[in-house]
Q: What sequence folds into this?
């Protein structure tokens, strides 16, 4: 092994300072893509020179929900489907925070669907990272709203017969200002999208299609995590700006990736403050933070 | 510390309980509320929505009670004092997040303006049938504190107590109003801010390097010190069973340690958490135990009974949970019987009976929708005397 | 002379194969060795081809490998701007 290091500094994995090393190894399976997205997240934090003291991660429940516990940031592992409303309260109480919601497809679009829709509608300034492994992983491989038609899951043992959700379309229609989809194969693009989302004011949504080797891949006889990544590489077509209605997923078909939506509109807080200034004038007490002493 | 004058509407007012509760929250320092409309509670947040932009703070009407009950917790960790307001059906929806608040020790207040149940029930009519739910509604072993006002004045004053207790014990506090008290309009005196005592948030003074979110304090207190997001502590909070570092620790011993401390945090403080109003209980043959609106009807019955020469004492619960076991036990040593009128089919009566250790407990149930007739309570007192 | 090299935390590796597959210059292969969990960690079979691009590090879901350019102070040290 050649590890000649000319400088005196011992090289450190860029992700390492962001990990709670005392909690390694993590619980994710071999070939699971969640850890890959964490590398991208770290890269985005470094490149955007984010203020790490003000960067908060709020997660839901499930495999992706465990991200909050592994990153060395203020982080909250909340209840299933409710990371977004928790994050909403957090952001409104302290607008100086940059609030990232890191959750899975089932958490965000099934039990959390209502909150996803309303936060997008309101354009709450949240950066939502949706790791979509097309299944409920942690609980053993049940059908998720995103599971493609005809896939086999533990609750559809004879194959699903419901169409899967097209999440970019859903959040676009609800009002999100930034919508992108990549896969865990697209590490550089994921990191770049995350960086853009950090800078964006309003509701940003990044969907990352990611392998679940143990349940989705195995039950559907699609190989392992690496096979999934190879499929993503082969089947992905970059379609920046594509109409989100056309980016639905199927079990083995094309995966439309890219930045679909990037528009500007005032976020919730901006709208709120403006409205109060209009209606109340001098009587309005605008506070940055709602902090108690 | 004293209340922030910005939130204190000092003066003599004519307010209903819902409105007075809102003023109590503002006086206590609440600057964030999230809620969802539900009769008969909505006025609390409607008033907050009108008041808080002029005081400084935020109200957001969330898309449902599930969102409201967790948004307030996000706000707490972001630095605010926060509360939500609901009635029966919404209270049921909030149960998971009440458990989350108990588990993560998030100080916040849940106001339940009780109405007829179960299910949609009687949206505009009073009941007191969520009392057991307030204590046991979420899954798992956990403790809460619950208060019960019986007048708009108390809706103001006891709301402040509710916030103070939630900060002192880092526990969710249930403020159990009822539709009658919520919609009854009476004189409410709001004192100057410097006469209102407020419990500050228990912020840690430790540096990030040696701060553990759930460490035992070492001062004998079982209440950990809190840090807010954005202050550089980089802490982790989870609803999973966790250790002192806040990290998931799913073992028998971690569970025992954590859930045991959560229980002891409140149970060991039980004597400090007795808040009642008593009259003539020292020599009473019968003690009437009541709370909320029923206590006002019961007062009439007690007065009439005493006028008839009966030795009747009155015990009104202001803090209902933790239940004042020791007090009931003490009264049970002298009293022949307890009479417990409530707007339900017997909820707190079970607690009285349990603590009374064999002393007769006469339940005066009412399915809800209205209040008791004083004569029904008087009849029960007379029956208890026999 | 290789422009870069990798560092592998053998015990974290779960042999998913991402780094092997996606290294642009095919530097890595799974080794015949085992770690204590029974996985075959990767090793450099074409070390001279390593550019230190750190794509392996970005792909690795277990934070078990990263690449860096030699002859420069590691970017990661500067990036580790936390107390």
A:
């Amino acid at each position: 092994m050649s590890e000649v290091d000319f400088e005196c500094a011992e090289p450190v994995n860029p992700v390492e300072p962001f990990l709670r090393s005392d909690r390694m190894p993590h619980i994710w399976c071999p070939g699971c893509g969640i850890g890959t997205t964490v590398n991208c997240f770290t890269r985005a934090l470094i490149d955007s020179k984010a203020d790490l003291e003000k960067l908060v991660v709020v997660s839901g429940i499930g495999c992706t929900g465990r991200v909050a516990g592994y990153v060395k940031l203020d982080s909250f592992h909340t209840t299933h489907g409710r990371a977004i409303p928790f994050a909403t309260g957090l952001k409104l109480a302290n607008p100086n925070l940059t609030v990232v919601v890191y959750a899975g497809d089932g958490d965000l679009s099934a039990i959390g669907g209502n909150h996803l829709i309303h936060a997008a509608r309101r354009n709450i300034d949240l950066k939502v990272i949706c790791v979509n492994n097309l299944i409920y992983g942690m609980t053993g491989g049940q059908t998720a709203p995103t599971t493609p038609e005809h896939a086999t899951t533990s609750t559809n043992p004879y194959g699903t017969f419901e169409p899967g959700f097209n999440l970019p379309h859903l959040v676009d229609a609800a009002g999100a200002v930034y919508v992108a989809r990549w896969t865990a194969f697209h590490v550089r693009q994921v990191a770049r999208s995350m960086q853009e989302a950090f800078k964006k004011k309003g509701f940003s949504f990044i969907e990352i299609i990611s392998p679940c080797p143990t349940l989705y891949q195995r039950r559907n006889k699609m190989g392992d995590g690496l096979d999934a990544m190879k499929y993503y590489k082969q089947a992905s077509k970059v379609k920046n700006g594509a109409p989100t209605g056309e980016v639905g997923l199927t079990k083995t078909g094309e995966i439309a990736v890219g930045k679909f939506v990037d528009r500007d509109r005032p976020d919730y807080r901006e709208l709120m403050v403006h409205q109060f200034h209009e209606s109340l004038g001098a009587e309005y007490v605008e506070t940055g933070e709602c902090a108690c002493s | 510390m004293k209340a922030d004058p910005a939130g204190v509407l000092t003066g003599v007012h004519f307010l209903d309980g819902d409105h007075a509760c809102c003023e109590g929250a503002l006086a206590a320092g609440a600057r964030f509320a999230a809620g969802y409309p539900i009769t008969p509670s909505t006025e609390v947040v409607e008033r907050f929505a009108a008041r808080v932009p002029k005081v400084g703070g935020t109200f957001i009407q969330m898309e449902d009670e599930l969102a409201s009950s967790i948004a307030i917790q996000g706000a707490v960790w972001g630095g605010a004092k926060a509360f939500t307001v609901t009635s029966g059906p919404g209270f049921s929806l909030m149960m998971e997040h009440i458990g989350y608040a108990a588990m993560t020790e998030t100080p916040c207040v849940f106001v339940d303006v009780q109405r007829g149940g179960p299910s949609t029930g009687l949206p505009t009519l009073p009941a007191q049938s969520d009392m057991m739910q307030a204590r046991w509604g979420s899954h798992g072993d956990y403790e809460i504190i619950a208060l019960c006002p019986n007048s708009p004045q108390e809706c103001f004053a006891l709301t402040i107590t509710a916030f103070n207790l939630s900060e002192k014990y880092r526990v969710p506090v249930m403020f159990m109003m009822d539709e009658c008290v919520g919609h009854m309009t009476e004189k409410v005196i709001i004192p100057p801010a410097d006469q209102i005592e407020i419990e500050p948030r228990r912020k840690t003074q430790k540096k990030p390097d040696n701060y553990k979110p759930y460490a035992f304090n070492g001062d004998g207190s079982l209440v950990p010190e809190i840090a807010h997001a954005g202050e550089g502590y980089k802490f982790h909070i989870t609803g999973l069973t966790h250790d002192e570092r806040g990290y998931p620790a799913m073992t028998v011993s971690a569970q025992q340690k954590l859930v045991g401390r959560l229980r002891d945090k409140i149970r060991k403080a039980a004597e400090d958490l007795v808040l009642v109003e008593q009259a003539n209980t020292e020599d009473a043959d019968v003690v009437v135990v009541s709370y909320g609106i029923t206590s006002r009807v019961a007062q009439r019955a007690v007065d009439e009974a005493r006028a008839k020469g009966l030795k009747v004492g009155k015990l009104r619960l202001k803090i209902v949970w933790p239940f004042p076991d020791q007090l009931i036990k003490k009264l049970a040593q002298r009293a022949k019987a307890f009479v417990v009128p409530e707007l339900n089919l017997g909820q707190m009566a079970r607690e009285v009976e349990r603590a009374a250790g064999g002393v007769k407990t006469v339940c005066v149930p009412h399915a809800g929708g209205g209040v008791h007739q004083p004569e029904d309570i008087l009849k029960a007192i007379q029956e208890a005397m026999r | 002379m290789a422009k870069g090299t990798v560092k592998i935390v053998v015990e974290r590796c779960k042999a998913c194969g991402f780094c092997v597959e996606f290294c642009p210059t095919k530097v890595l292969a799974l080794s015949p060795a085992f770690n204590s969990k029974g996985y075959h960690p990767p090793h450099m079979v074409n070390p001279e081809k390593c550019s230190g691009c750190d794509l392996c590090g970005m792909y690795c879901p277990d934070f078990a490998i990263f690449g860096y350019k030699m002859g420069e102070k590691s970017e990661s040290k500067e990036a580790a701007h936390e107390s």
Notes: Chain A touches chain C through 46 residues (CB under 8 Å). Chain A has one domain: 16-265. Confidence is low (pLDDT under 50) at residues 1-7 of chain A. Residues 34-47 of chain A form the longest helix (14 residues).
